[in-house]
Amino acid sequence: MKKYFITGLLIWIPLAITFMVIAWIVSTLDRILLWIPEHWQPKVLLGLDIPGIGVAVTLLIILLTGLIGANVLGQRLVLIWESLLARIPVVKSIYSSVKQVSDTLFSSSSHAFRKALLIQYPRQGAWTIAFLTGKPGGDAARHLSGDYISVYVPTTPNPTSGFFLMVPRGDVIELEMSVDEALKYIISMGVVTPGKRAEVPLPAPVET
After folding, report:
1. pLDDT along the chain (208 residues), means of 10
2. E strand or H helix at 139, and its extent?
3. What's the rounded Cα separation, in Å, for the pair 89 and 99?
4. 3-state class of 171 per DSSP?
């Protein structure tokens, strides 16, 4: 009986967690309908409440925004909008920082989060998985002697929080696993073991 019960749990727990996560995402995106005037909301127009329609509306807004921002007029509007935000003291700092991070992460030429690494953290002899985010820059790079890279060390089981480190390239071991496999490994606290894949080299060393 114990064996059968555990087998049942192994089947239902992933399904239940998946359902709860998807339900939370759908319910969160459905709240975007609150931005629409009441007489234009789908519930009023169609006469019934359709779960998940907020997801479709959100995806449509993102797609339309991308279509508008891809042409010359849209790019001009974006520049005007960004210059307006740049004049607001607190908003300026938050927006510029978030935009720089998002532009770096989603850029097709960026090396950010393209490689899983093995580093010693938080002390010598203790190893953890980190992700390559680039190379140190600005005043920080001028104070570092040698070839350094920037890495992000996520926490377990929530990889959205973590630590930013600048470590010598020689202290880093490149892992033969994708970023997705490394994230699964971290989230599962080492239970889900990733397979092997072709090695992706780190960016070329900085010439001195």
Report:
1. 82 84 80 72 70 77 82 82 82 78 62 82 92 88 90 86 92 90 87 62 54
2. helix 138-142
3. 16
4. helix
